[in-house]
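Let us work through a complete example step by step.
Step 1: write down the sequence.
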Amino acid sequence: MFSVQTGTKLSIFEGLQVQELWQASKKLGFPSALWRLPHQNEIKLLISIQDGIRKCQPELEKLSPGFMISTFHWDENQDVLLLEGDIILTFSEDHQVRTVDNLLGEEHTEVRKLVYVAETLTNEKKADSNDHSLLLPAINDSDSRTRFERTVELAVSAIRQNEFKKVVLSRTKDLFYSEQFQPAKAFCKLVKVYPHAFVSLVNLPEQNELWLGASPEVLVQQSSNGVFKTMSLAGTQNARNESGELIPKYDIRWGEKEIEEQALVSRYIVECFKKIRLREYTETGPKTVLAGNLYHLRTDFEVDTLSLRFPELASVMLKLLHPTSAVCGVPKLPSLTFLTEIEGYDRSFYSGFLGPVQVNGDTNLFVNLRTVRFKDGKATFFAGAGITEDSDPGREWEETEMKCDTLLKVIAQAF
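Step 2: predict the structure and record it as tokens.
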């Protein structure tokens, strides 16, 4: 692998910026992923040139550096998609290339073509300094609220008949986007607005899809020093009052419904630890946390896998946790059966998982929440709400609207 510190050695990538390299990669049909981890400034761009996307088992500790993405409907015997990390570029906060890890070398034909296209796009951008607006006229679907509220009523009825304790129902919201829409620019805007989220943009050429998101929820993390982390995140409240001002965290009061909803997710994680007879974990919370325009309740779990000699813990827990009760329900199987039959659409990659694997020795997989799919001129926003026996259909609809707004209010503005 060629690892170039651009501050000390010339590289053909020097002077190029993240948006032009992303656009060049997409134009050449290379699968690619752009991401920024929570509480970090660095942006990373991974480009798969040789083998593109391969299917594999998520044995995280055995994989080469890449970017993983999985659909919601996945079980432990199925493969997931892995974008191979042929080139991984790290950008500074001002979007300048800081380091380049290049498996192919700078003389590789496709690498030089990538740089040439990015340079051309950079020059075109200078010539065309006009900013384009993103127009998103809403697709008329007046029945969607009625349909969603009816599914909530059915779920509450099933819960009261003891079919399950909780189910997470979701819906979509479709809008159109113009040809001038610039996904990487939208990504950069989300990075600024949501510093606490995992912000990502993934190009899947075979599906002809782009997925953009700002997820607040860790599924599994395992660092190069052996620390495993996961979390339970549930309960939702608007973080701003009617005047648009941020409500102080300590003024937030949680109701019984939200507390029980989040406690179910925590108990689910503890049950997964019990299945593998793991007792050596720390549990912190629940506490109120801000995620975008919403407050949630969160409990953090942490394990030292080095002291336990358990390097494969993240792989084991991934299979046990997904889909968590925060995106599926409790118990898992009956709630999964219910939402599969009632929701009436394919969730695809929404509420699946995604993130970088073995990049600098770290694996960070997040639940694919607060996400939008761009395909064939249509932007599809996804959002869900946890349904318990105390749920009110109208309030659950409003919750999904607030979650859609997390992205919509940022990327629907003129750039």
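Step 3: interpret the result. The two ends are 37 Å apart (CA to CA).
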